[in-house]
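Sample A.
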Amino acid sequence: MRLAMVGLGRMGMNMARRLINGGHRVVAYNRSRDKVDLLSREGALGAYSLEEVVEKLDQPRIIWIMLPAGPPVDDHIDRLLPLISKGDIIIEGGNSFYRDDIKRSETLEKRGIRYMDAGVSGGIRGLKNGYCLMLGGDKETFGYLEPVFETLAPEGGFLHCGAAGAGHFVKMIHNGIEYGMMQAYGEGFELLEASPYSGSFNYREISHLWNQGSVIRSWLLELAEDAFAGGDKLDDIKGYIEDSGEGRWTVQHAVESGVSAPVTTLSLMRRFESQTRDSFSDRFVAALRREFGGHAVKEKVK
């Protein structure tokens, strides 16, 4: 299929590459020209304006937006609206708040434009491993786009979750769970560090050990192996952990729905606390985020 990727950041660039490698024709657009030039050399059709994006697509046009949630997404949709036609499809693949998806879908439906929200998980390693896709929107549009999803995802790695907003809602809860899992691992390694045996421990080896049949084995522990490759103390970075919107939205939903979610809530609070202190567990979580998502860390001044 021919589709556009608008936004060539950490995720958008590699998603476009996976689509190109899968035989799709990708029109690539980014605010900075250098990324468009780079992807053009790898087989994409470069576009240097949204007008050019639309011109290079066949109808029904498929435009996948991979931009920071909020105003950047709405701004690009507003700029695209005068250029696209009834029946065209916009896919929002960032980490938008699900209620924003519902509003966008209703607005676009009045113009005859189809809208899907795509929660995407897989981080910077998705190019090789594939991306887990959580999708919301019209079932018929989902069916039309299945060849795209099949290319991006590993086998069994995409799901139509429901109407508009459902994809990003499932991704929001996914990220809330992620908060709790990483916090638990971080606290566990900090307890090891505080033990009388810490001098004999090799945390990379322990991470590897726990992934060999243990009930707590996971991809996060595989990434912990990589994170500890530079040294057990992780003392080259600060334990400063940014919180994303999804964690806050998950806790907000828990409050609104009356569901007890203490692990997720406390994990969010610890991220706030990390921004004013520097503990081992916080350095661990920061290092994990760097490994799976390419998220920036704050390095210590030596």
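Sample B, a different protein:
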Amino acid sequence: MSMLTTRSSSVRTPTTSDQTADPVVRVEGLRKSYGSKLAVDGVSFTVDRGEILGILGPNGAGKTTTVESLAGLRTSDEGTVSVLGLDPSQDPAPLREVLGVQLQESRLPAKLRVVEALRLYASFYADPRDPEELIDLLDLREKRDTAYENLSGGQKQRLSIALALVGNPQLAILDELTTGLDPQARRETWDLIEAVRDSGVTILLVTHFMDEAARLCDRVLVIDQGRVVAEGTPAELARAGRAGITFRLQLADPIDATMLTELPSVDSVREVGGVLEISGGRTVLPDVIIALHSRGLVPEDVQTITPSLEDAFVELVGRPSEEEAA
């Protein structure tokens, strides 16, 4: 598998301090085994200050083991991990003061109220954020005195994010943030994450939702079988995920597809919902239009198909994400 390692700027414009600061996270040659199973195999990457870095990969790829090693919840077998200059295995106490973690599965006591949970977690830190401020930031004001068991799935996720932020961290690790949420709750959560980043928190986001990564992430890593197989912005990976050009055109009358498949720039022609979908090299679109025009045929409609992050993911790991497979 080829690796895309471009690190061009993302949609977010970095400030001068972003560009000159050391990375918030630096991982080099991380390896972790469970018995005979090699879960993480030489993973290396950085997270720059003020960005959202997404980690994508199929189930069992090593994503969660990687971020748990950053959080000090796992001890790596080999490699180095630095979070704001701290070694998670050697500096657990100071690390807790600068790192917030929202794990894939977390539960609170059923009767614990929202404000009580935030005050309890705030008591663990030397310089916590104001729980009331977080209640407003995460849109939990109406649920301030509601017991955990009576919160909806989206509200529980918002509370989970608030608890990850209550220590006033510089870095937040969010693992499978919106799994199980309905589409509206997912999009509301995305808005909150962007607000959190805008407040100055660097974010490491583990997800299997391609639309989530494309919406939120400045850069993404794709991990498969414990290794980084691609890295870049969502747009860069999407462009790399499908070679050439694909477009659909609609004609007034059916044609013999052979007249198109014989063109050197055409790789494939297939019918999709009554229109022709054509893929090929860089000049395939003008070549097809010219060939049709030479026979007196003018398309009624032409639509190019923009490659997606999902396309890149499938090409890199050989199978769709859990979301697409479901």
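Observation for Sample B: The chain has a mean pLDDT of 85.
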